[in-house]
Each structure stands twice: as structure tokens, then as C-alpha cells.
Write a structure and sequence with these properties.
heterodimer, A: about 725 residues, alpha+beta, eight-stranded mixed sheet, B: OB fold (Dihydrolipoamide Acetyltransferase, E2P), four-stranded antiparallel sheet, about 50% helix, elongated, TPR-like_helical_dom_sf (chain A), ChAPs (chain A)
């Protein structure tokens, strides 16, 4: 673990000393699921000031060991030491602080209490437990209960750390999101973190049956014993530390009490790369309970990966039958149909997916509002690890790009899709990338009731019902003509995006009274076919519309770019614009085009999102390359060349992103750590290490001729640190070889 | 069984609203309603449990489960089977059977040398060989393959490889390229030389993974084999090299024999081909009178003598250009020929019967003979060279230890100046350069200088003792020398070879043409060049550079 410095601790000014704690207490009642990050409140005053000018600041933490009072106190003490040992630039002035008091709050989502430790320097240590309505309850607790609370708090803390950090943090930094947060890697601290890991695993076993209290992801309607954040966090920790055997032991013990744990065992076996055993376990579990939806989904995914969509389809059907309200079961069924090329059924099943709009992906949120916005934020730049292009990225450059953004790109609604809608859209693009837009429209018209048909149907039904059910044709007549003419025009070129549940529905109802007789004969002829069709859910209809928008922008970009190419002109866009184009291409599964856009974006300036996306592309390319069968010496030659290039680029991306995260006070990025250990599995840690040394050597002799300025600093230390304290510590991917 | 009557309250697109008598409101898909119903109609619904379908589905589902189990849980990957295909002084070619992954997917295939990770095998699904060059001469290594799959990790058996001594020419595997019409030798001469040397016979027609040298006299860029050899960094040399080896009874440097930049007059001056024919001719004269005297039936005698006589006899045959009909392989030709000469009057059948076994024996004996002979002279030479090498190794160390700090500093400065230019010293470059460069900054203070002294003494011996490796390394790496900045494992022996396995050639943009040329020039030096000689060469070069600086 890199030694922390004062420059890696962001702070926010509070209204008056301690006000953040009051705010937090007030909001305890409304905290959902896992809760917010740990809050640290700091009182400080200037050493040589005359008046009593104590001010208060606060920041959030994740990944701190909160398993007991002592470790929190130690953490606070070291924080105070950092703050007092050196003078600090504080909003432009150099100030030397004294820190008399610090508090640390950690939310316990199991028992819905906030655990608080206050350290007075010099002096005593207070422990306070605040329950959800703000009452102090520590005096009523037995020491056993208190121990239990601390265990729960600790497990919550780790789960928050591993689940949250996976989220894209960069949007926060630029867009005014939560930035006053320091993320510490809990697994990167030598022997201490091994102990911490053991504590966590034990805690998991103990609290397993309470897991549902932590909430769950959007894939499931409500948390269950198997689907909840506690289990997700556990899985992530296992993956990060590759402690599969230990995990299996724990899960086997739990399985004796709760048979459905078997699906977790199968998952761990798959992670462990022991798929044969996993297949056996899945089979055994399903034989015991053939309605275990988690196992069924897992098995479906596995079989799909093995390219047996026919088998997978049967499993997915069974999964849906077993749990018709799970989005995940339905979505995998859609995937099976897509793989089989049965797009009609894919659309129908997609239409049946249960949507979940009230929940979002877990994310750290501000619990204490900033009174004066970003003016209250003290955001130093860490100097221990820097890389010029990354660390010096200026936010005004980005906001300039934002202001001058091409209007076409600004408000693409597909960007903002959340939860199950985003996933459903993903499925829809899976279909369109296989069929193309025109064909998709045909499939759509075939299975869903289209607007025109709907109109006919209404007329038909009205005629047969002897005008009994229609509403009063009051203002209908006038609207009708207008609506109809515009409709017909639109339908010519744009019938695709017309919803049958469009707002004009009422108008048609009214209009039907006009010419009933003309339609009745037709009505019978198409009635049969019509009856087989279904109504398209409104949200799905909306997704079609978004897809149309995306495709339009994408096609335009491609055409323009071709045009410019033909004219031998430079096709110029800002980084932000490229990034948006890249995201569109990725959404539409045109990864190659997307990667081009992202690399264009990166050629302008560093952008964490582009970097991350392009890394994803490299990893995809690498696995494609691995499985591609080609022979011959020159092919092998090319293969080696490509593979090395890809690995180099991946390493480069990882390092840049690590530096970026470090600049924003985050030293814990599970996703990057997984990529790194994956890379180590490929290349061996020795090779990675010397690559880093060669690329980021700080001596001026080799890489740069400019002796005054070194473009980077501390990267070798950072990577060595990860190598020794993380990869070697857990013997990841046989790192010692 | 349940039976209800329901009134259709509303018939909408695809959905109908049904009402029960006790005021349940049921949304019902119109597709399930009988034809012709309209709003106001009354429909009757019967609900039964369909036990039969339930059972059918259960059976079906079970069969799927069984299928999955039998498909994916029975077929385990097999551990890879590793073999040695060819060994030379500094390289070896490993070969393995087609991987059997069962139903699992491949994650990685990694080669280990003496328990250390060398690197991933490229194109593991199709590639079945790997060439390792840059190995030290006459040493033994253990190799092992590790197969990572989604169904676990599988290790091959460990195999041991001994790199050849300088005098062992059996690893030489040549591929023949284009020759011009007026060359002072024939293809048969080459084949003859190969046989006498005990090299792999017959020569290859296509460049393969185990090809060590590409022989030609014409640089034909149209010839795909030539291009391949060039790409694979196989030294492209004149066949005279074979004769030079043959003459010295040990492997000699390829440096002077590059087709690209050899000094032809020098080669011709040595009179390689003529020489042999001269040598042969007296023997030939000797041999010929002897031959007829050997009684064909006395096998033992014949074979023993044949050992001595085979080459001349063949030579003679070739020179005489005795036409032989319907004999496809040269080997057989030769034996046939010989026997034909030996026993002119014996029956054809006997010819054939003896022909092959004798040939085999001859083949067997020959290498032994050559080794025996060579043991007397070249081994001694080799030993001398080893001694030389050792001296070479020790020298820098001694210098480093004994000279005062400042001097070392100066010299390292020189090194620092020199390193970036000396492209061939690729291996240690990043490290040395980096460290020396560091020292650049800190030359004023003594402490860093001392540190540096240590470093130098650490680095230098590695460089020297690894000389043979270094050289061969370059042979493969050559154009990518610059890339060493990016290829990291320079300071690790394992790392070096790692690179080899991959045959990393990254055409980084910064590898310019002239360097490549130089690199190549050097490259060929190595695969088989004598270590001492090349080491000396290197020394010289360094010295030269120093002078220049």
C-alpha cells in the first residue's frame, strides 16, 4: 500500500464544526440498501491564530477496516498526524493546522444503525451508536450486541467498497458528483489485509442469512438469500483475492443449512476455472430442485457460452417458468432466441420482461449536501504518483468541450437509460446488429399490433358493438382531419417509430364513428391474423424510438467520415464528441468503429471513459486472437506481434486509469485490479514489472531528452506496490512463477 | 376441475377484459378466445391440471440435464505431451501433440524452463512447436508446458534437453534456397557435406521451425522460403559455411558467410569446394583400388571399411556422374552405387538386401566417428575458449572492484554514452542505461557512485556470462532491438528466453532500416557462432565505440 499523503485527502468545508454529523443523523431514516460511504468529520484550527477559529471539514471513506473501535481510532489518529505534520495549502493560503477532534461514522445496513467513533486529541475516545431515528442507543447494548454491530458494520463497509468502486467514477469527477471521497484498497496492506480478508469471510458466513437486508441489484425484484449485495460483495472479494478454496469451504458449510447455496458453489467453481466440477454441481442441484432459478440461469449462461443455444433455450424456458418475475431469467431467454436467430420470439419475450424502474445500480451518494457547491471543496492534487497527460487534465477543457458540443449528440436519450431499461436496450441492439434495422421493423410488424391495424380493429369492434362503447364525438371531427393527414405522411417514412399506444389513440376512437360500414368487411379478413399479435409494451416501443435515434446518428457519422476520407480531409471532432460517438457505436455493438472513435478521443486528450472502453476492446480482441486458429510461421509471427501489442496497450490503459483514479483519491479499483491480474496471468509478473520499469523510468537518460521535466512520477512504485502487496500476496494467477 | 362462465366486457387489441359473476376482472389475451366472439359474448373456461404434460416436460427436462452432464462433465482436457524436435548448440525446438481440450476452452498455454515461466505460446490452438534460442552451450534444461483451461490447469511431463557441444554438428538443419548456375559446387556437394558432418539429412526444401540455416547463393525475394527465412531470422548463408564447419570439425561463425554481405573473394580464396575434391581425389584413388578387393559377403569388414570409404566413394560417384535409374532417394542411391561398385557381379536382390542395412550402419557409425575425431582437437579448442570466456567474465568484475570510484564512474559514463548507440547490446540496455543514466545525474556525490559501482559489477558479469545468449537473442530479436525498451525481461535470464519463445518482433516505429541491417548482420553471427569468438568481437566493438566516444 502506498503511504498516504496529505495531498491524497480531499475535504469539504462544513457549515459549522460538526454540522455534517447532524445532517447525517437527520438522514439516517431515509438511507436505502447498503447506505452511504463512511463519513469522516475533522475539526481543525490554525496553530498560531489569535481567535478561536475552529472550522470543520468532512470527507467520505471506503475500504477502511471498521471491524473494531481500535482500528478506526488508529485510522483517525494517522489522519490527524498527516494533517498536523505539514502545513497545507488551504484555499490558496498556506496554513498549519491543529486537529483537536475527529469523528468517523460507518453505516451498518444490517441493523440500520450508524456506528460512530470520535477521537479527541489529546484525550479520550468516544463510541456512539445512532439508530435510524437519531437516538443514541449504545448504553442499552450488551457487549455481545455491540460486537455483533461492529462485525455487521465491517462487512457492510467491505461490501460497499468492492461493489461501489466498480462503478464508473469519472463521471463524478467532471460532472460535479461525489468527489470528496477517498477509496482505500482493503486488500493491499500485507499481512494485515490477509487478516482482514479472513475476518470478512467469517463475517460473511455469520451474516449470510441476513444478507437480504442489504438489498440487491436491479436484476431481481427483491433481495433473496442468494441474490443480494452481501453475496455479490462476497463473490467480488473471492474473485479479487482468488481465495476459491476457502470460499468453497464456507459455502459448503452454508449449503447444509440452505440447499440453494449450491448455485453459489457452482459460480465459484466456474470462477476457479473448474468447469467440469461446476457442471456436475449444477446438475446435482437441478436434480434436487428443478425450479432453482439461479442454477438454471447459471447453467443457461454456461451452455450458451459453449455454443449450444438449443439446449440453453430449454433451460431458459424452465428458468422463466420457475421465476417469471425475474428480469434476469427473461433476459437470458431473449438471448437464447437471439442466438438461435428466432427474432420474433426474441421480441415477444423481450416484451414480456418485467421492468424494474424503482431501483438503480449501487452508487455512493452525498449524504451531506454542500452549501456553496464546489466552492466548499478542497481538492488537492496528489504528487506521489503522476502522469502528465492524466494528472494534468483540466476540467475547464472538458467543460469547454461540453459547451461546444454538437447538438445532435447532446441529448441522445439512450445514454441515460437506467436499470432494466438499459439492459433491455442492450438486448434490442443485440437483435438489430444481427438483423439490421429494416428486418427488425418487419419482425416487429409481424408480432406486434401496429397502429394501422389498431385503428381498423377499433372500427371493427365499434361497428359490431353497435356504437355502444364509443365516447362522445365532441371535438373529434376537427382533430381528425389534421391528425390523419399528418399521420399518413409520417407513416410513409416513419411508421416504424409510431407507437400503437400513441397519444392520438383517443382521436381514433372518436373518428371511428364516421365511416363504419366501409371497414366492416375488411375487419373480418385480417381479424384472425390480428388476434395473434400482441400489444407492444410502451417502454419497448420507446426503446425502438431510441434505437432509431442512435442508428441515425451512427449512420450519419459513418457516412460523413467516409465522405471526408474520400475528400482526404480531416474529420475533426472534440474528444467529448468522439467519446459520445464511440459510446453509440458500442451500444449498437459496432465495437471496431467504437474503438476507432475512442482512440480518436484519446488522441486529443486523456479521457478515463474512452480509456476504459478502449481497454475493453483490447481485451475482446485478445480473446478473439487467442481462439482464432491460424497456422504457418508468418501467422504465428503476426499473432505474437499482435498479442504483444495488445498486452502492451492493455497495460498502458491500466496504468493510466490507475493514475487517474489515484489523482481522484481512489486507490481501489476492483475492475482494474482484475484486469491487471489477468494480464499477469498472461505475461508473468516479472515481465509486467520490467515493462513498467522500461516505460515509466524516471531517469532522463533513456526516454526523454528533456532533463528538466519528467513526465511521470511514482508509477513504478505504484505498480511494484500492487505487485508485491496484492498480486504476490494472494499468489494471483500463479504470479510467483 | 374448475369451470367458469365469463362475460367479455371489452375486446381490445390483443387483450380482452373478462368479468366473472362475482366481479373478478380478468385480463385475457384475445388469442385464447374462440373465433367470432365480441364484446358482450359469454365464454366458458375449463381449467384442468395437465398431469400428462407435466410428466412429459419433466422427462424432457431430465433428458436435457443428462445431455448437459454427459457432454460437458465427461470430457476432461488431457495434459499436453511435450517432445524435443531438434537441438543445436544454442537452441532447441520443442514440439507437442495437438492439444486435447475436451469440452473446455483454452485460457493459456505457457512454457516453463527450469520451473520458471518463459511465456505464453502464440496461437496455441494450432501452433505445435516452439523454438527456443539463446541457450548456453552444452547445458541441460528442463522444459514443461502448462495448459490453462476453463476446466483446470494441466502440466506436461518435464523433459530434459541438453544443448550440444561446439563439436556436435548433428543439430544443424539446413534448408536449401536458390543457387545460381555457375556456383562452384552442386547440390550433391552440399548433401555430401551434410552427411559427412553428421548434420540433419536430407536438407529441407521448406523453411520449418527447426531450420537452423538457410543456404543459397542468390537472394531471391520471390522465393517464399527465402522470405520466410528472412522473417524468421534464420541466417541466410552461403553453403561454403558447411565446408568450413566440416573442415574445422566444429561449428563456426556464420558471419563471413552471409549471402548478403560476405566477401566473396575471401570465401573463394579458401577454396572450400575444390579443397574437398582435392582431398578426395587422393583418397579416391586409394579407395578405388581397395573397393573391388573387398569381398561382398564379409559384412563386418565391409561396413567397417565403408565407414572410411563412404564419403570418397560417393564423391567419386558423383564426380563420375554415374547415371542411376529408378532410385528416388539419394541415400539409397549412394548405397546402391557403392555396392554396385563393390560387388559388381552379385545379384540385384542381394544388393538391395545389403544396401539398406549397411547404409544404416554407416549412418550410425558416422557421427560417432566424427565425435571421436573431434574429441582430440576441437574439444581442446573448446576448452581453451571456455577459459577465454571465463577470463572475459572475470575481467570486468575485477576492474570494477579494484579501480577507484571515480574511474568507474568515468567508465560508466562512457557506457552510458555508448549504450544508446550500441543497438546490439540490447539485452542489458534498459537496465544499464537506466542505472547509468541515473548516475549521470548524481555524479557529483560519491554515494550514488558507489552504488552504481555495485550495479555495474552486477550488470556487467551478467552481460558477459550471458554472452552466448545475448548474441543469439539478437539473432532473433534483431530488428526489435530497440523494442527492448518495451520488452522488459532483459535483466532476467528467464525473461530473455521468454522473448525468444514469443519471437517478439515488435516493429516499433523507431526501428529504422539501417539498424535493422546491422542487427541482421550481427544476428546471423550467433545462432551457431562460437561464443568466445563473438564475445571477442563484441569486446572489440565496444572498444571501438569507446574510442569513438
Amino acid at each position: 500500500m502506498l503511504p498516504p499523503s496529505i495531498a491524497s485527502i480531499p475535504e469539504a468545508r462544513e457549515d459549522y464544526p460538526g454540522s455534517s454529523l447532524v445532517e447525517r443523523t437527520a438522514r439516517l431514516l431515509t438511507i436505502p440498501d447498503l447506505g452511504p460511504g463512511d463519513l469522516c468529520n475533522i475539526h481543525k484550527y490554525q496553530l498560531n491564530s489569535k481567535k478561536e477559529t475552529e472550522i470543520g471539514t468532512f470527507l467520505y471513506f471506503t475500504g477502511v477496516d471498521t471491524s473494531n473501535v481500535a482500528s478506526i481510532a488508529a485510522h483517525l489518529q494517522s489522519l490527524a498526524n498527516l494533517m498536523t505534520s505539514k502545513s497545507q495549502y488551504w484555499f490558496g493560503d498556506k496554513k498549519h493546522w491543529k486537529v483537536p477532534e475527529l469523528s468517523y461514522c460507518s453505516y451498518n445496513a444490517f441493523s440500520k444503525v450508524d456506528m460512530r467513533v470520535t477521537v479527541h486529541i489529546p484525550g479520550k475516545l468516544d463510541v456512539v451508536v445512532v439508530n435510524y431515528d437519531g437516538k443514541l442507543i449504545q448504553d442499552k447494548l450488551s457487549s455481545e450486541e455491540l460486537d455483533r454491530f461492529w462485525l455487521e458494520t465491517f462487512v457492510c463497509g467491505i461490501v460497499r467498497a468492492v461493489l461501489e468502486s466498480d462503478d464508473d467514477p469519472d463521471t463524478n469527477k467532471v460532472g460535479g458528483g461525489l468527489v470528496e471521497v477517498r477509496k482505500i484498497n482493503p486488500f493491499n496492506n500485507g499481512i494485515v489485509s490477509k487478516e482482514l480478508l479472513n475476518n470478512f469471510l467469517q463475517g460473511f458466513e455469520e451474516l449470510f442469512f441476513q444478507g437480504y437486508k442489504l438489498g440487491c441489484t436491479v436484476d431481481f425484484p427483491q433481495p433473496t438469500l442468494i441474490n443480494n449485495y452481501l453475496v455479490d460483495g462476497f463473490m467480488k472479494v473471492i474473485e479479487l483475492t482468488q481465495t476459491y478454496d476457502q470460499a468453497l469451504e464456507i459455502l459448503e458449510r452454508l449449503q447444509k443449512e440452505e440447499p440453494s447455496v449450491i448455485s453459489l458453489i457452482a459460480q465459484v467453481l466456474l470462477l476457479k476455472q473448474d468447469e467440469v466440477e461446476a457442471v456436475k454441481v449444477m446438475n446435482e442441484g437441478i436434480t434436487q430442485n428443478k425450479r432453482d432459478v439461479n442454477l438454471l440461469i447459471l447453467q443457461t449462461e454456461y451452455v450458451l457460452e459453449k455454443k449450444k443455444p438449443e439446449l440453453a433455450l430449454e433451460l431458459a424456458k424452465q428458468a422463466v417458468k420457475s421465476s417469471p418475475s425475474d428480469f434476469k431469467a427473461w433476459s437470458i431467454l431473449v438471448k437464447c432466441y437471439i442466438r438461435l436467430g428466432d427474432f420474433e420470439n426474441a421480441l415477444l419475450t423481450l416484451n414480456s420482461c418485467p421492468m424494474n424502474s424503482h431501483r438503480e445500480k449501487y452508487q455512493l451518494k452525498r449524504i451531506v449536501p454542500l452549501k456553496n457547491g464546489s466552492e466548499d471543496l478542497h481538492l488537492p492534487s496528489p504528487t506521489d504518483v503522476t502522469l502528465d497527460e492524466v494528472s494534468n487534465l483540466q476540467s475547464n477543457e472538458i467543460s469547454y468541450e461540453q459547451r461546444n458540443l454538437d447538438a445532435q449528440l447532446t441529448n441522445l436519450p439512450a445514454t441515460n437509460l437506467k436499470s432494466t431499461y438499459a439492459k433491455a436496450y442492450d438486448l434490442l441492439t443485440d437483435i438489430v446488429v444481427k438483423t439490421g434495422w429494416e428486418a427488425l421493423l418487419k419482425y416487429r410488424a409481424k408480432v406486434f399490433v401496429m397502429e394501422e391495424e389498431y385503428r381498423k380493429d377499433i372500427r371493427g369492434s365499434v361497428s359490431s358493438a353497435n356504437n355502444g362503447t364509443t365516447k362522445e364525438p365532441l371535438n373529434g371531427a376537427e382533430n381528425l382531419t389534421v391528425a390523419e393527414t399528418t399521420e399518413t405522411v409520417n407513416e410513409e417514412d416513419n411508421s416504424s417509430t409510431m407507437a400503437i399506444k400513441s397519444p392520438q389513440k383517443e382521436n381514433f376512437d372518436d373518428s371511428t364513428t364516421v365511416d363504419i360500414d366501409a371497414v366492416t368487411t375488411e375487419a373480418v379478413s385480417f381479424e384472425d391474423e390480428f388476434k395473434r399479435k400482441r400489444l407492444c409494451e410502451r417502454w419497448l416501443d420507446n426503446l425502438f424510438m431510441l434505437l432509431y435515434e442512435d442508428l441515425r446518428v451512427y449512420t450519419m457519422w459513418q457516412a460523413e467520415s467516409l465522405h471526408f476520407q474520400a475528400q482526404q480531409m480531416e474529420y475533426k471532432k472534440t474528444t467529448l464528441e468522439w467519446e459520445i460517438l464511440g459510446s453509440i457505436a458500442y451500444r449498437l455493438k459496432h465495437f471496431k468503429e467504437g474503438s476507432i472513435a475512442f482512440s480518436n478521443a484519446l488522441s486529443g486528450r486523456f479521457s478515463p471513459q474512452s480509456q476504459r472502453e478502449i481497454m475493453r476492446y483490447y481485451v475482446m480482441e485478445r480473446s478473439k486472437l487467442l481462439t482464432k486458429s491460424s497456422s504457418g510461421a508468418s501467422n504465428i509471427h503476426n499473432y505474437t506481434k499482435l498479442m504483444n501489442q495488445l498486452n502492451e496497450k492493455i497495460l498502458d490503459s491500466i496504468i493510466k486509469l490507475l493514475v487517474w483514479n489515484h489523482r481522484w483519491y481512489s486507490d481501489f479499483s476492483p475492475g482494474l485490479l482484475l484486469s491487471l491480474s489477468d494480464l499477469v496471468a498472461w505475461e508473468g509478473s516479472i515481465k509486467i514489472q520490467s515493462s513498467v520499469r522500461a516505460l515509466y523510468s524516471e531517469s532522463t537518460g533513456v526516454t526523454s531528452s528533456d532533463k528538466d521535466h519528467i513526465g511521470n512520477h511514482g508509477i513504478i512504485d505504484m505498480m511494484d506496490d500492487l505487485d508485491v502487496d496484492y498480486i504476490k500476496l494472494y499468489k494471483l494467477s500463479n504470479a510467483d512463477e | 376441475m374448475v369451470e367458469v362462465s365469463l362475460t367479455i366486457g371489452k375486446l381490445d387489441a390483443s387483450l380482452a377484459l373478462l368479468l366473472t359473476k362475482d366481479h373478478h376482472l380478468i385480463e385475457f389475451p384475445t388469442i385464447l378466445l374462440p373465433n367470432g366472439v365480441k364484446a358482450g359474448s359469454i365464454v366458458k373456461i375449463r381449467c384442468d391440471q395437465d398431469l400428462k404434460s407435466e410428466q412429459e416436460e419433466e422427462v424432457h427436462f431430465q433428458s436435457i440435464q443428462d445431455e448437459i452432464l454427459s457432454t460437458f462433465a465427461t470430457n476432461l482436457p488431457k495434459k499436453p505431451v511435450l517432445r524435443v524436435k531438434n537441438v543445436t548448440q544454442t537452441s532447441c525446438v520443442l514440439e507437442w501433440d495437438q492439444l486435447d481440450l475436451g469440452t473446455s476452452s483454452l485460457k493459456n498455454l505457457i512454457l516453463f524452463k527450469d520451473g520458471k515461466k518463459l511465456g505464453s505460446i502464440p496461437s496455441p490452438l494450432t501452433n505445435k512447436t516452439s523454438k527456443l534460442s539463446g541457450l548456453p552451450i552444452d547445458k541441460s534444461f528442463k522444459f514443461q508446458l502448462r495448459l490453462d483451461t476453463t476446466a483446470g490447469t494441466y502440466l506436461s511431463d518435464e523433459i530434459e534437453v541438453n544443448t550440444h557441444k561446439m563439436t556436435d554438428l548433428s543439430g544443424i538443419t539446413v534448408c536449401l534456397g536458390d543457387f545460381s548456375a555457375n556456383d562452384p559446387f552442386t547440390k550433391e556437394d552440399i548433401e555430401e557435406a551434410l552427411k559427412t558432418m553428421g548434420a540433419k539429412f536430407p536438407p529441407q526444401e521448406q523453411v520449418k521451425v527447426d531450420t537452423t540455416h538457410f543456404l543459397c547463393t542468390r537472394e531471391n525475394k520471390q522465393n517464399p522460403e527465402y522470405v520466410k527465412a528472412n522473417e524468421m531470422n534464420i541466417p541466410i548463408i552461403r553453403p561454403e559455411w558447411l565446408k568450413a564447419c566440416e573442415r574445422e570439425r566444429r561449428i563456426v561463425g556464420v558471419r563471413d558467410f552471409y549471402v548478403k554481405d560476405c566477401v566473396l573473394p575471401d570465401i573463394f580464396a579458401k577454396n572450400y569446394w575444390k579443397n574437398t575434391s582435392k582431398q578426395v581425389s587422393p583418397q579416391e584413388e586409394k579407395a578405388e583400388p581397395e573397393l573391388p578387393t573387398i569381398p561382398a559377403v564379409e559384412e563386418v569388414q565391409e561396413t567397417t571399411k565403408a565407414d572410411d570409404e563412404v564419403p570418397p566413394a560417393e564423391e567419386a560417384a558423383e564426380i563420375a556422374e554415374v547415371p542411376i535409374e529408378s532410385v528416388p532417394e539419394i541415400e539409397i542411391t549412394q548405397s546402391d552405387e557403392k555396392l554396385a561398385e563393390d560387388i559388381e557381379n552379385t545379384q540385384q536382390n542381394i544388393d538391395d538386401a545389403f544396401g539398406e542395412p549397411t547404409e544404416e550402419e554407416v549412418k550410425k557409425d558416422k557421427p560417432v566417428e566424427s565425435v571421436e575425431v573431434s574429441e582430440s582437437e576441437p574439444v581442446a579448442e573448446a576448452e581453451k575458449e571456455v577459459v577465454l570466456e571465463e577470463i572475459a567474465i572475470e575481467q570486468p568484475e575485477i576492474v570494477a572492484e579494484s579501480t577507484p570510484v571515480e574511474e568507474v564512474q568515468a567508465s560508466t559514463n562512457e557506457v552510458a554514452n555508448e549504450e544508446p548507440q550500441v543497438e546490439e547490446v540490447a539485452l542489458d540496455e534498459p537496465k544499464v542505461a537506466a542505472e547509468t543514466a541515473e548516475s549521470h545525474d548524481a555524479t557529483t556525490s560519491e554515494e550514488p557512485a558507489k552504488e552504481e559501482l555495485q550495479e555495474v559489477s552486477l550488470v556487467e558479469p551478467v552481460a558477459v556470462s550471458a554472452e552466448p545468449k545475448v548474441e543469439t537473442e539478437e539473432s532473433v530479436v534483431d530488428e526489435s532491438v530497440v523494442q527492448d525498451i518495451t520488452s522488459p525481461e532483459n535483466d532476467e535470464v528467464a525473461g530473455k528466453d521468454n522473448e525468444e519463445v514469443g519471437q517478439d518482433e515488435e516493429d516499433e516505429d523507431n526501428a529504422d532500416e539501417p539498424e535493422e541491417g546491422e542487427g541482421e548482420g550481427d544476428a546471423g553471427n550467433d545462432t551457431t557462432a562460437t561464443p568466445a569468438a563473438t564475445a571477442k568481437d563484441k569486446k572489440k566493438k565496444k572498444k571501438k565505440k569507446n574510442k569513438k566516444n
